[in-house]
């Protein structure tokens, strides 16, 4: 399946390009807003992604910044692409953050999971058990929509060029019985299958590794084809809130953290064997 441009990534790229053009003119965001008769925070809100930039505002900014014809065409196209809808937009009520949009165009994802099996390889039964446990008051329709939204992420694996996935999973995530022994056996079988995929590297971080750098919780590093256009982002999720980090210092910190986890975890072959042993603990 061909990759479709992610509106989330295009919106981010548009914001970055508008900031670059503003910097080129030597103006502050407040100076631009004052010159255009806008509220003093309007430009900075555009650039931070806190509000949507309208087509007429893009053209106004391009005029002010003295954009070349080539820049004008490129940014107008970016704005048009940013206004399109990704498949996940239909699940806006159950996918409240932008992670899926950032994930959709990543070429490499390095993630650490402390409590759950990685989302891209969760079985439907495992997902349903998680949703029911976390949403005890949800009606069946909400449960079904949340399950469908989570499973929809798997389209990423069907791309002509799927992303390179390097996943480190805490032993706790594969030991905790979610949905019962039958569900866990099927879930572990899915993970073992994933270990054989050419674009996947999977490592188990055993309890015996002791204290480690990521005991604060799970995270993911998302890299893109052209870092100059789309720099790496770090995604943090603790179930009650999510956070996307883009500053170089944050990315460097989590990159180093991931390297430390790789060194402590079982190697991929040992990890596959480990998963097999855990699966054997559950009856057919």
TrEMBL record:
CDD domains: HTH_XRE (cd00093). PROSITE patterns: HTH_CROC1. Residues 18-72 form the HTH cro/C1-type domain. Pfam families: DUF5753, HTH_31. This is Transcriptional regulator.
